[in-house]
Specification:
70% of the residues lie in helices and 4% in strands. The protein contains 15 helices and four strands. The strands form two sheets. A two-stranded antiparallel sheet has the order 1-2. Strands 3-4 form a two-stranded antiparallel sheet.
Length: 325
């Protein structure tokens, strides 16, 4: 050992070369300096990290009760796949699964293109003040709770004095009770989802559009392209990676038909048409106390969601060349 690497005594590591001790001390000093500089950001991140730990990562371990019989006094009794057998033999579960698939498919087909269209239209608005006003107006519904939104639409769709039926009456059409119409209630879910989230979701697409190299638009303009041709040949290809990524993420949440929305817009007349897996889990888990059966249903939904992500990844990879990995 050279004089430069003369040994020093560390309380944690014992005899270590002086150069190694200096490097370790330097790393500790850098970490402490980084903490002092960035601690406000770490504090801001803490609630989000805690939320995911408590509500997303801890339940992964607790999902084992899907294979156990929960007892008031531990330990629980291991029952294997008994709860899954009960679940799959229940016609009610298959009905709520079918409702979930239908509602989720309707939302994906009719909702997914809307934020893209909104972003494309916003990008074409040249007036700065007008653009800011439109953005504020379409972003606002995202910050309203489903309780407020449900109250707005229940009043607007009222068959007696609702604005929609008043307009239909002026057009010579008979009034219709949309909220108790089993044929219309799923479309109410789709429309309210679009009204609430399309503007906010367009932010990601708008950011992707802004990131496109302006030289591509200049080159297209030199070639004589009009606005529509620029959108078709420059803007849309430029946001394909964003569309593919969000499509895959939405596929992973395909079975999340929005518990809060369904609960607030549901009633006894139409419940059979919009009763979804999440409301089923809520009902048998929190209202009847069958925690193991509810966990089995939730775990089944999670496995299907994971499969949907993988399938969507390979489909997107095949069609656009873009995927999650």
């Amino acid at each position: 050992m050279t004089n430069r690497d003369e040994a020093v005594i560390s309380p944690k590591f014992g005899n270590v070369p002086k150069s190694s001790a200096r490097r370790r001390t330097g790393r500790i000093a850098l970490a402490a300096d980084g903490w002092r500089r960035w601690w406000p950001y770490y504090v801001m991140m803490a609630p989000g990290i805690l939320f995911f730990l408590v509500f997303h990562y801890l339940p992964i371990w607790e999902a084992r009760i899907a294979f156990e019989q929960v007892r008031i006094v531990p330990p629980n009794i291991w029952v294997g796949i008994k709860h899954f057998q009960v679940l799959f033999s229940s016609p009610v579960f298959w009905q709520v699964l079918a409702n979930t698939l239908i509602i989720s498919a309707m939302k994906m087909v009719f909702f997914l293109p809307v934020p893209i269209i909104v972003a494309l239209l916003l990008n074409e608005v040249r007036g700065g003040s007008l653009r800011k006003f439109i953005q504020s107006a379409i972003y606002l519904p995202h910050f309203l709770s489903w309780v407020v939104i449900a109250g707005i639409f229940i009043a607007a769709l009222s068959p007696t004095d609702g604005a929609v039926n008043n307009l239909m009456g002026m057009a010579g059409m008979a009034p219709r009770s949309f909220m108790t119409d089993t044929g219309a209630i799923r479309w109410v879910l789709v429309f309210t989802e679009i009204w609430r989230s399309a503007g906010w979701d367009s932010l990601l697409y708008l950011a992707a559009i802004i990131a496109i190299d302006q030289q591509l638009y200049d080159a297209a303009e030199i070639d004589g392209a009009n606005r529509w041709q620029k959108i078709r040949h420059v803007t849309l290809p430029g946001i394909v990676p964003t569309i593919a990524t969000l499509f895959i993420l939405n596929a992973g949440m395909f079975l999340n038909a929005d518990l809060n929305q369904v609960i607030n817009l549901s009633n006894d007349v139409v419940r059979s048409k919009i009763d979804i897996v999440d409301t089923y889990v809520y009902r048998i888990g929190l209202q009847t106390g069958e925690y193991s059966l509810a966990t089995a249903a939730g775990l089944f939904k999670a496995v299907l969601g994971t499969m949907m992500i993988v399938i969507a990844h390979f489909v997107s990879k095949r069609l656009t060349g873009k995927g999650v990995w």
